[in-house]
């Protein structure tokens, strides 16, 4: 186990010293704050700088706090995931490419520990950022909109977190398998583009990891049918476990491709 | 001497290209072996296979009483251009290397400090490796390769990227390390090989074309000659007429091929002395390792 704690420490140092533990939370918090604030002030912003014709009266839809969580989710599902992919696509492939991995791989290293150390620290950074972002949004929703029940928010956060862990696992497993460019491309496909595919033709199936994020918002709807959510969560967790095993074995198989 | 490693028919193929082709050799404990060959002759691939980085296509590596999975803990490896995590300090990196190689947590910091001081980085313990110069990186690379006291150290061109001063320093360190461990290093700087080696392995296009001690190889390829430089040209003339061997003259010097003429220094000195030749200099010359290299590894 000592090897594992050494690797965890290394990952933590890497993420803190290249400031990922700072800028990723800040990015998520900014989106978390902007969503309720811009939605609240949009009518006034449009009135003063929107170039509306004299006398025009536009009826803005009445948003509720719960709707703001859903639209924040839309932001995170695109820009948030892009941030995750871009920040971590080279986690393993980058170390191979620049040769820093060589001095790790010549040691008696468990590739399971190697992959898991990256998985744990990356998830820590990303989940912390997502949580802080959603909590920041909640604070402004409480001030600018209406009260949302705490248990609903926490159930939303917990469910959405499973999707985020899935995204992180996909990115790391692909980084273990492919060179950075390929990992990035495929990760963007598997997380961003496949969401669209899943929503277009996925009406035929209701159980899918790509639907977990949408199901997370069901917690805000009192009468939603939750049965698909649970099955989707189980499937997602299974995917995550398989991807961890795949990523560890790919890291081991590709160790010989490190730059010597 | 005890054998540390036996390599039998080690082969690495990439596609249909054999990068390393049925290479066999042995390493004795506490010796240093130089792996010599031009670029692309398979030196780095051979070292990478021994380090457990690259799996061999065929052949065996038999380490003295060590199971394959434990081999990496008794090996230290220094790549030609070692790359470090730029955000770690020298001490943090060396400590991490020690712990990953199985050194206890409590001992790791102490060993890392001691090793860094040994390689001359005692003043740069907390400096980030990203700020290191080429020579400092090479020394840090050496530190991470020896911090866990491995039985075998594999060094890929340990000094070729360094300036003469850096080279001298690293060579001196290696000589000290050599007393406690076994070293296998690749090089194409033959002065270094001449300076520190018990065994030479010549690689050409992936094949081991020559091996042996420096003296062995020398005696096989060196074509020793005896060179005599005379005071005057008349003396040289007189010598060529009297000498029963084939001599080649050039200016005031003559050269006699020891092996083809079957002659030794005593016979020549006896002749020179007996006939009172006026001689300025007499010496026995052997080919340098570089000449041997050109013959064995290049052609």
TrEMBL record, chain A:
One of its GO terms (molecular function) is ABC-type transporter activity. The chain crosses the membrane at residues 21-42, 76-94, 115-141, 153-174, 186-207, 227-247. It comes from the Bacteria. GO terms for cellular component: plasma membrane. Keywords: Membrane, Transmembrane, Transmembrane helix. This is Putative transmembrane protein YxlG. The gene is yxlG.
UniProtKB/TrEMBL annotation, chain B:
Pfam families: ABC_tran (PF00005), DrrA1-3_C (PF13732). Residues 5-230 form the ABC transporter domain. One of its GO terms (molecular function) is ATP binding. Its EC number is 3.6.3.-. Keywords: ATP-binding, Hydrolase, Nucleotide-binding, Transport. It is an enzyme of class 3 (hydrolase). Belongs to the ABC transporter superfamily. This is Putative ABC transporter ATP-binding protein YxlF. The lineage of its organism: Bacteria, Bacillati, Bacillota, Bacilli, Bacillales. The gene is yxlF_2.
């Amino acid at each position: 186990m000592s090897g594992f704690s050494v690797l965890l420490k290394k990952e933590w140092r890497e993420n803190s010293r290249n400031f990922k533990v700072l800028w990723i939370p800040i990015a998520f918090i900014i989106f978390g704050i902007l969503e309720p604030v811009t939605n609240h002030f949009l009518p006034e912003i449009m009135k003063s700088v929107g170039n509306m014709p004299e006398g025009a009266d536009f009826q803005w839809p009445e948003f509720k706090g719960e709707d703001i969580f859903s639209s924040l989710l839309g932001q995170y599902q695109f820009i948030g995931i892009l941030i995750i992919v871009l920040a971590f696509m080279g986690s393993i492939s980058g170390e191979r490419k620049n040769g820093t991995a060589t001095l790790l791989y010549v040691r008696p290293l468990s590739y399971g520990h190697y992959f898991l150390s990256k998985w744990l620290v990356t998830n820590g950074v990303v989940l912390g950022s997502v949580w802080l972002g959603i909590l920041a949004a909640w604070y402004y929703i409480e001030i600018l909109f209406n009260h949302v029940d705490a248990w609903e928010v926490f159930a939303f956060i917990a469910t959405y977190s499973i999707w985020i862990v899935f995204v992180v696992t996909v990115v790391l497993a692909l980084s273990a398998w492919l060179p950075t460019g390929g990992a990035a491309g495929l990760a963007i496909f598997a997380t961003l583009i496949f969401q669209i595919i899943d929503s277009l033709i996925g009406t035929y199936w209701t159980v899918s990891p790509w639907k977990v994020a949408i199901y997370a918002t069901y917690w805000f709807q009192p009468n939603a049918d939750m049965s698909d959510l649970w099955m989707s969560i189980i499937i997602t967790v299974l995917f995550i476990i398989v991807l961890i095993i795949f990523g560890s074995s790919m890291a081991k198989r590709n160790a010989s491709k490190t730059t010597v | 001497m005890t054998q540390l490693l036996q390599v039998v028919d080690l082969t690495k193929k990439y596609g249909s290209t054999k990068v390393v082709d049925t290479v066999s050799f042995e390493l004795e404990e506490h010796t240093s072996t130089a792996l010599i060959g031009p670029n692309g002759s398979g030196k780095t691939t051979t070292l990478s296979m021994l380090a457990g980085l690259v799996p061999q296509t065929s052949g065996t590596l038999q380490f003295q009483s060590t199971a394959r999975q434990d081999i990496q803990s008794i090996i230290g490896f220094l790549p030609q251009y070692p790359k470090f995590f730029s955000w770690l300090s020298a001490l943090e990196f060396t400590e991490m290397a020690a712990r990953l190689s199985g050194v206890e947590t409590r001992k790791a910091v102490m060993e890392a400090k001691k090793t860094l001081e040994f390689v001359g980085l005692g003043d740069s313990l907390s400096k980030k490796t990203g700020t290191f110069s080429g020579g400092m990186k090479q020394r840090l690379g050496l530190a991470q390769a020896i911090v866990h006291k491995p039985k075998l150290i594999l060094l890929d061109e340990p000094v070729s990227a360094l300036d003469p001063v850096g080279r001298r320093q690293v060579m001196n360190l290696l000589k000290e390390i050599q007393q406690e461990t076994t070293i296998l290093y690749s090089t194409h700087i033959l002065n270094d090989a001449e300076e520190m080696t018990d065994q030479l392995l010549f690689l050409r296009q992936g094949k081991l074309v020559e091996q042996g001690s420096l003296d062995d190889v020398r005696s096989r390829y060196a074509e020793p000659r005896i060179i005599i430089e005379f005071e005057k040209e008349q003396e040289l003339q007189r010598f060529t007429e009297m000498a029963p061997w084939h001599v080649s003259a050039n200016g005031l010097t003559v050269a006699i091929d020891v092996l083809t003429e079957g002659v030794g220094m005593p016979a020549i000195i006896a002749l020179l002395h007996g006939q009172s030749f006026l001689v300025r200099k007499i010496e026995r010359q052997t080919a340098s390792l570089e000449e041997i290299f050109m013959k064995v590894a290049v052609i």
